[in-house]
């Protein structure tokens, strides 16, 4: 039951994030014309759970993101203790568009492999306290991949 509640909370967080972020930046002339939709997410791990969270991303989540059409750009942990070195994971993924992001997240949270990995990773307690999400557009001077 706790796993179902956790999945529902993650799903609700994603839905709220999409609802709050649908106000696309006004058309700045500095936004790249062919920009993918980037998403920067910050996870605040429960006390003592950052390495378990890293293991879940390393062993399951990154591959599942790719499976569901999300491009893994990079993953970071702050270096300074006062900035979250012990409990914060920041990452950026890319989507083809905001609409594709919605579809990818919906298929990700419904994936039985994700549900299994999520449940197994939290056998000793919840890993994530809070998630923040920001959608970003590349500027016209961003390096092209």
Low-confidence stretches: 3-9, 11-25
Largest sheet: 4 strands, antiparallel
Radius of gyration over C-alpha positions, nearest whole angstrom: 16 Å
CATH architecture: 2-Layer Sandwich
Q: Mind telling me the CATH class?
A: Alpha Beta
What's the domain count? 1
Distance between the termini: 43 Å
Give the SSE string. HEHEEHHE
Q: What class would the helix/strand composition place it in?
A: alpha+beta
Calculate the mean pLDDT score and round it: 86
Percent of residues in β-strands? 15-25%
Number of DSSP strands?
Answer: 4
Sheet with the most strands: spatial strand order: 2-3-1-4
Give a description of the structure.
With 145 residues, the protein is an alpha+beta fold. The chain has a single domain (2-21, 34-137), classed as Alpha-Beta Plaits, CATH 3.30.70. The chain has four helices and four strands, in the order H-E-H-E-E-H-H-E. The chain has helices spanning 2-20, 50-67, 98-110, 112-121, and strands spanning 37-45, 71-76, 88-95, 128-137. It has a four-stranded antiparallel sheet. Helix 1 packs antiparallel against helix 3 and helix 2 runs antiparallel to helix 4 (112-121). The longest helix has 19 residues, at 2-20. It starts with a helix and ends in an 8-residue tail after the last strand. The model is unreliable at 3-9 and 11-25 (pLDDT under 50).
